[in-house]
Amino acid sequence: MSKKIPFQDVVSIGLMLFALFFGAGNLIFPPALGQAAGSNIWPAVIGFLITGVGLPLLGVLAIGISGSEDSQAIAVKVHPIFAVFFMVSIYLTIGPLFAIPRTGAVAFEIGILPFLPNDGSMNKIGLFLHTLVFFGITYYLSLNPTKLVDRIGKILTPVLLITLAVILIQPVLKPMGSFALPTAEYAINPFFKGFKEGYLTMDTLASVVFGIVVINAIKDKGVTQPKDIAKVCAGAGLIASGCLAVIYVALAYVGATSVETFGRAYNGGVVLSSVANHYLGSMGNMILGVAIIFACLTTSIGLVSSCASYFVKMFPKFTYKQLVGGFTLFSTLVANIGLSQLISFSVPVLVALYPVVMVLIVLVFFEPWINGRREVYVCSIFLTGLISLADGFQAAGILLPGVYNWLVQYVPLYDVSFGWVVPAILGVVVGYIVSCINSFKLSLASRM
Description:
Layout: H1 7-21, H2 24-37, H3 41-66, H4 80-97, H5 99-111, H6 120-142, H7 148-173, H8 184-188, H9 190-197, H10 203-220, H11 226-256, H12 259-262, H13 268-314, H14 320-335, H15 339-365, H16 367-370, H17 374-395, H18 403-410, H19 421-447
Helix pairs in contact: 1-7, 1-10, 1-11, 2-3, 2-11, 2-13, 3-9, 3-10, 3-11, 3-15, 4-13, 5-6, 5-13, 5-14, 6-13, 6-14, 7-11, 7-13, 10-11, 10-13, 13-14, 15-17, 17-19
């Protein structure tokens, strides 16, 4: 029998979800966006919030509405084989190939490296030792996923929020300067540029994974009815997205007002380090280091736990514990490649995957009208995938002769990285028409 859970448990689940989302890139990218957007900060931030907050919230709600404990639920509507291939791609992207190693690398470069001597060989040793400890802690805390709410929602998240508040309150209330002029890429289409920057957080990809973590946490509280699960998901999602939105706006604002004092930095981590030192001295850098490490650690735990839970179903010969150990060990090795390389490798994959995930999430909310018509999903995802795949090749520097010029000329919004929108809508319309024709044919055949 389903039961209602206390509001404080909804808050704990929401804080857990916030901490899972708020990881390595979430602290780095908004300040960098603010610096680059300058006086165009607000349209850029709105674009960033859509992909960095709005879509992840919709992703969690989509999983909550489905009520499934399987993250393939929204992709299987296209085809079971597609669902497996697609979800494996997502789990590997937000897992051991990119996102999990990035948490360790960012935690080191911002939380540890500023306190080490400027020695290249010693820094490499420091990175290796740091990742051993960092992923060792991740391994231990990931072994019992049922305790994620207590460990993250009630312990780690409040520490993270307090440290962020200490860092951000003064720069927001007493800004260092006025907004600078926007860079060239933010001068023309700041909204679209900010929208695309939100891809780098990987949160929309992670939402279909973390949605399962939330559902399991809700069920552990005794809630079993699909409608009740969806309501708790919505409440927890709003708490998490509210925290994310406030912090993103504050980080972007701090970045936008810092150019006059520090000049343009090469990444958001440098901006935060400079701001923390400016207001709080060396103590500020220590507080920032704590915030970074906690943010990265909570995300690392959630990703490892989610990936292990998924792949243990696919490869039952391995135990959950073995997969957690394998993912943390592999991530330790990959993290030592370096942060810049990890980010550059991930961009083409994110550009290719993101539009497909966004369309799938949106289609879930139109399911009452689509009514299970597979043709709608197939046509829409096929056309979206063609455009996003071309974008991925372009982001990877792989030129397709004549293709790019043709897309710019004939596909609306392609020049602002929204080329997938019209094909996605066209796919829905074509798929619906094809479905109606097929239904009509079946109806005629049954009467004969």
